Amino acid sequence: MSIFIILIHVIVCLALIMIVLLQTGKGADMGAAFGGGASQTLFGSTGASTFLSKATTVVAIIFMFTCFVLAYMSSHKSAPSIMQDVKAPVEQSASATAGSGDPESTPVNAE
């Protein structure tokens, strides 16, 4: 199930990148006013703004949904950890390190 969600997530990511790159910038309308009248003919006379903005909204919602699903699945794993059988390392007490004879841990007398 997680592989299917990850596959959908990757496809939606690529689609979102492509849709955003297809959109024109805010300065493109100014160029059309000064003689570039054929700049919006690919998607019709209204331009690509309505179609691409709706597509961006739909793909962004799907992207956020797959993000939430993947985050939920990763935080609620039912499989045991691979580190479950490993014992924690033994820690030394503070008194054992103070009398070890290490010059860095031995206090210096101010006589």
Characteristics of this structure?
111 residues; mainly alpha; 4 helices; 53% helix; elongated
Let me know the average pLDDT.
77
What is the H/E order? HHHH
Specify the overall morphology. Answer: elongated
**What is the chains' assembly state?**
single chain
Write a compact overview of the structure shown.
By secondary structure, the protein is mainly alpha-helical.
Set down the secondary structure blueprint.
Elements: H1 2-22, H2 28-33, H3 49-75, H4 94-98
Plain-language structure description:
The chain is mainly alpha-helical and 111 residues long. It has a domain at 47-79. It has helices spanning 2-22, 28-33, 49-75, 94-98. Helix 1 packs antiparallel against helix 3. It is elongated.
